[in-house]
């Protein structure tokens, strides 16, 4: 048998205050009892708040994914810069060695 009191208490947004009133923690709305709380849950105000919460969660997830992708891109860029710097250093060392060898050969 359906009992609104039990269904209301299982809802994640259900909270009872010290006076005994029931509160929807998502909408910050007080109801006199569990039956009114259940009516609130099926109403427009609650549906709008649930939709807002879902949109916020989707936006936050997308932002986290973008941030993760940006971090990965920055790490790849840093590695590329390190490789390029090493190549430049090696190339510079090779040029110096060739110039030294040329000078030594010319000095003979």
From TrEMBL:
Instruction: Name a GO CC annotation attached to this entry.
Output: U2-type prespliceosome
Give a Pfam family name: zf-met
Q: Which GO terms describe its biological process?
A: spliceosomal complex assembly
Which positions fall inside the U1-type domain? Answer: 19-53
Q: Where is this region: Disordered?
A: 87-108
Q: Please name the InterPro entries in this protein's record.
A: Matrin/U1-like-C_Znf_C2H2 (IPR003604), SF3A2 (IPR052092), Znf_C2H2_sf (IPR036236), Znf_C2H2_type (IPR013087)
Q: Which PANTHER family match?
A: SPLICING FACTOR 3A SUBUNIT 2
Gene3D superfamilies on file: Classic Zinc Finger
Q: Which residue stretches does the UniProt record annotate as biased composition, category Basic and acidic residues?
A: 97-108
GO molecular function term, any single one: zinc ion binding
Where does this protein come from, organism-wise?
Lygus hesperus (Western plant bug)
Q: Please identify the protein, giving its name as recorded.
A: Pre-mRNA-splicing factor PRP11
